[in-house]
Every structure is written in structure tokens, then in C-alpha cells.
Amino acid sequence: MNGLGIFKGLLITLKHFFDTYLADFLHRQKNLPLEDKRGMVDSSGLFTVQYPEEVIESPEEFRVVPFLVYEAGENGERNYRCTSCGICSKVCPTQCIYITRKKDPETGKPIPSPEAFYIDTDKCMNCGFCAEFCPFDAIKMNHDFEMSTYVRGETHIFNKEKLGKPVEYYAKIRPVNYALEEAEKAAKAEKTTAA
Amino acid sequence: MSEQTAIQPLYAKLMEKFPESVVMDERPGFGGIVVQSLNLVEVAQELRDNLGYDYLSSVTAADDFPEERLEVIYHLFKSVGGAPALLKVFLGRTEPVVPSLTPLYPGAELQEREVWDLYGIRFANHPDLRRILLWEGFDGFPLRKDWKEPLYEEDVKPYKSRWPEGKGERKELLNPYKDNVQYPREFDPSTWTGDVDQAMYKSLEISDDGNSRALKTDQLVVNLGPQHPSTHGAFRMAVVLEGETIVNLKPVVGYLHRNHEKIGERNTWLQNMPYTDRLDYLAPMSNNFGYAITVEKLMGITPPERAEYIRVMMAELTRIASHTMVTGFLLNDLGAYFTPALYALEERELILDIFEEVAGSRMMVNYFRFGGVARDVSPEVLKKIRHLVYNRLPRKIDELDKYIAQNEIVKVRCEGVGVLSADDAIAFSTTGPNLRASGVPYDVRRADPYSIYESLDFDVCTRDHGDVFDRYRVRIDEIRQSIRILKQVLERIPEGPIMAGKPQYLAKVPAGEAYGRVEGPRGELGFYVVSDGKPNPKRYHVRAPSFINLTSLAQMCKGAKVADAVTILGAVDIVLGEVDR
Lengths: 195, 581
Hints:
CATH class of the largest domain in chain B: Mainly Alpha
CATH architecture of the largest domain in chain A: 2-Layer Sandwich
CATH class of the largest domain in chain A: Alpha Beta
Structural class of chain B: alpha+beta
CATH architecture of the largest domain in chain B: Orthogonal Bundle
Strand content of chain A: 15-25%
Radius of gyration of chain B: 24 Å
Distance between the termini of chain B: 30 Å
CATH topology of the largest domain in chain B: Cytochrome-c3 Hydrogenase, chain B
Number of helices of chain A: 6
Mean pLDDT of chain A: 85
Largest sheet of chain B: 5 strands, mixed
CATH superfamily of the largest domain in chain B: Cytochrome-c3 Hydrogenase, chain B
Low-confidence stretches of chain B: none
CATH topology of the largest domain in chain A: Alpha-Beta Plaits
Oligomer: heterodimer
Number of strands of chain A: 7
Shape of chain B: globular
Mean pLDDT of chain B: 86
């Protein structure tokens, strides 16, 4: 019969409408966590969440603009893991990482620490190569994607202070990777002490 | 190289017929048959009519700077499958002219325009040789090695100004409006009044005499786009109408052009990987796949088995995501705004969630590496994929198909619209679901198997009518086949390493050339790369399926109603990131 297809189509939407309330009701009854409410393989009804009131947690590997890992010293000073070897800057596809190597003011010899470290976040394409190839685990990809600002230009070039994050923050957003790296480091340290 | 030996019998045959005008490319690492430009058309005719090479896959060029030589490179295939016939024509760098192959292979039309646009190689007898990606007033031919962009820094990355004395300043900020636009020397933008579109309108051949027709009407040009909800991006169709009927059509592209290939030649080999995500952004995993296998061909490495399985798994997931989305948006183009599209997007969302967990990003995945993949797939994610593949996708696809294929409006609007015959589809170098909907069982996964596809059990889906409805049905069939592949992959995926050798940020690629292709959701995605042993590719070309599928758009639209043009375009399924590159 002509016109039946339209009704069938409209019925899908109607079903979705009622399914949403049904799913919400069941969800409350079973006391399930918020993350399982919408957009899962088994969920029915509305598929999306009410951002920004509800936020879906990002998976561990999720990546946005990188940050520099530092360990806080006794007096609150930042001991960056970075040795300014320049691998991240060389591997960066958009060439958005700028590093100035620190030099000994007397001898002029390079010191393994960055004098300055900039990332042009407008150019950064969040590919994650810098974090992947950093031999010192000094640069890692962030999870914080809410980065919009009112002004473009200079403010989007992040300097060392703005890029720095404590190692605890890294352990919090990437627990699995952090644990793996720490275990690897411990094994290496054991080997050197044994030798 | 195996391809070089495969071409020997063909060379012998051509040698018999054209002893003076063909010669093998003897450079180490290179292959193919070098043809004299004068005899190119005859050689191509022989290849097409007598030797079965009826499918011209890719036309491109390369610059041998500082040598005074340009190359035009043709990849021809048989539509029944097999190794390519690789033809090359060597030309001088000043005023190069080569005969056009468009009369023989209509599929060369847009590609030859692209070569003219980017290399300045003129194609004699081309029906409509204009710039395609750049505008008419553009200065120079950007893919030539001696052409430099505004704000040029260095020939190749990594740039020296970044380390160890990186200053964190943008060149364009220091000098914002002066150096970042480049004009021809005699050109003054403030006094310029020319119309860039004149040549395009002229090429549409509008006839003013209405005397031969029953209704004495003038023909009318209507521009659909560049900003139009049906065009999936900034894309424009200039349509000549007679009443409501389309008489002629020209696609106008290049609004998002960024010269992907020039960027690719400045990059190191690995740095290109994230850039390929941005070609066909609805199917990033296939783009990664194509680039990875092409460079692996040159490097002579094969990834470990687990990596191969992961790759195929990701490529098939990306195919499902892309096809469901296109199906939804086809309904959008029919006027059922966004409700069906959003239901179709649900499946895609779930797949993108998996990509996010595995690769770290939903669309810009950057997941493949030379010799493997970036990181392993955890057992939890495998469980998720299994759950999706076994419990949700088959059910949802059947549901989607049931509601769409039985809807009378969809049927009336799609059946018999935008018909492309099998012969035309091959001649226009159409690929992917568009080609198979015309009844040609050509799928790169079967015609030229790569990775582990040879050991997998799946069918090449074809339909016979070649209309919009069949294109839709081929896509649904392919989703079902992809689910079938995924089930096999999930069953067989072995444990083991995911990278051959150590991950390296500077890939060592020996000198030579390679053409690799994969079956992406939109068709044959080819990469042609040339290495000179340095850290950067010497030539990096993308054979973009969307771009080449556009060649046949005019043929499909002729005789259709103007409202159908939108539907036909939706069924061709272009992604502007790949068309404009």
C-alpha cells in the first residue's frame, strides 16, 4: 500500500522516543553508572548525552595537545623529564614544537634540559608522534579537549610553564601506560644495580 | 621486483608492434615501459583493444629536478584483475606536451587536468584543459620541485629552526598580510576584474538556439553549491538545464585544496601517516592501510601476523562506519532530513568509540606504522568488537535495510536514476561500490589481494542496474560481507608481536618506486611513491577514489531531473577532503 513506508519510518522515531524514557526508567531501577546510560552497544532510545552536564569519560589512549611531564622537587620547583634531545621536534609532522637547548653559561656546552619549550597548538594535529617516540617519557598526550579561548594568536603558543604537568597527573589520566613504564624503569634499574 | 618481471611479457608484445617507441625503464628500483610521447595514443589503443588493459587507474606525473625531465606516469589494469601495465612518458621541463588519453579512456579527464594544474604538462586534444584544484590566476605549477610556497622555510622537514634554537614564533604572525599570498608578476589584485568562471561556462557548450526542440526554451546554467546542504562540503556543480532536465554538468572542485602531495614531499615518510587520515576522513583506517602497504613494498618488510589481522579488522570496521553513514546521508539527499542519518550514525559512533580506544582518536586515527600498527588491541576491546559484530551490527543493518529498501519514496526516487552502464563505468575509471553496482565484479581485495584478504572468505558484491538504488544495495551487501570478514578475523586473530622490528621515527626507504592500492569504502585508493633513498619521499601521489569517481558524474546526470542530481551525487559518495586534497 502506498504511504505505508512513511508510517513505518515515523514509527521508528516514535519507538525511539518511548525507548528513551523506558531506558532511563530501567537505568534508575538498576542503579547503573552514568557511563552505561547512553551510546552503548546494548542501549536503546536516545543515543547522545547532555554535554556539558554529562561527560563521557575519555579512554586512556585518547589524545589532544601534548604536555610536559615534570616531577615536583622539594621546594616546589619543576624538574622536567625533558632532556631537549629534539626527537619530538624532529618527528612532528606540522613542525609545531620549538625547543631551545640549555647551555652552560660559562663553558657554552649544552645541558640536557630545555631552556625554552613551545608548542604551537594551532598547528598541532594531535597525532601523538612526540609522545610515541620520546625516549624519556617526558612528553605525553593530554585528555583535556576543552581548550577554546577568546583570542587567537600568541596565546595559542604554549610555553614550558603552560605545558608542564606533574607526573601524578599523568598517572591519573593514563594509569595503564604509567604502570607499564614504571615497571620497565624498575626492571632496568634492577639490572644496572645487579651488574 | 615481482612487478618488473610481470611486465616483461607485455613489454615483449609491445616491442613486436612498436619496436622503436618503447623501452624498459632500467633505473634500479624502477619499472614500467617508457613510451615515446608521439606513439602514446597508439600504444594505449593497443593495450586497451587487444591486450585487455581497459581500466586506466591512475594518471600522474613526477619531476626529476634537477634533471631537465618530467615524467607522466600511467597505471593501467585489466578489469578482470592482475598486475598493472605501467607506462611512462619522459618530457622536457619547458613547455611539455603529451597527447591526451581522454578520448580513449574518459576516466583520464579530471586526472589530466590535475596534472596540468600542478605540473604544467599540457595534454594535446584534451576536451577541457583548465586548472582544476587551483584558480586560473595561480602563479606557477606547485608540484614542480623548484616551486616554493609563500612562507617557504626549507625543502624538507624537519626544519632547522625548531631545534636546538627554537624560538616559538610564527613566521606568518611576524608578517601577516605581505608574504602569505603569491600572485603572478603582472597581476594586481586590486584592479583585477576578470571572471575565473568564464572558461568553465564556455566549456559547458550552452546552445542558444531553441529551434530544434519542441519547446523553444533557452538553456539555463544553475550553480549547485559551493555552499549547499547536499554537497557534503564545499563542492559546486555547474548544471546546464533545459526546463528541468540536465543537459550538461561540470563539477567544480578545489575549495579545500591544500596541496597534500606537496606537503607529503616536504614531510618525512612517517610524518605523512597522520596526513593521510585527513584525505578521506570518513575512512581513515583505509587511508593508513594504503600508505603503509605502499611504503612497506619499497622497504621490503611484512608486518607480523597479528598486525595484519588488526589492520584488516580496522579496515573493515571503517568500511562499515563509512557505508552506514553514506546510507543515512543518501536519505538526507532525498529530503528526509537528518532523522534517518542520525540513526545510521549510531553504528558509526560505536565503531568510532572502538577507534578512540585503540588508536586514541575517533577520526584522525594515525594508527598504522611501517611494519605493523602503533599499539596492540587489548582483550577488552576485542570483546567489545566481538559484541558489536555478533550482537548488534547484523540486526541493525537488517533493520536499516528493511526500512529503506521497502520505502516507496526511496524506490521511486532511486530506481533507474543515474544509470551508468558497465562499459561506461570501466571507461570512466569508476571504482568501488559505484563500479560494482554497474555489474563489474572488481574489488581490489580480490583482483590484487593484499594483506591477508586472500585467506579470507567473502564475496564481491555486484548488482546489475547501475542506478542509485543499486549503489545503495551494494553498500548494504558490503557491510554484510564486512561483518562476515570480521567474524573470521575475530576467530583467527593470533597472539604475537604487532611490529616488525623496532619502531623508528626515521624510516629507511631504499630508492625506487611503488604503487600500492587498497579497496577503501569509496573504491581503489592508490598511493604512488618514489624514493631516492633520502628521509623524505621524492614523489608522493594519492589516487583518490572520490576524485576520480567524479569524472562520471556528468554522464550519470545527463537526462536526469535537476532534483536527482543531488541524489546521484549522494550515491557517488564523495568526500571532499580527498577530492580537493
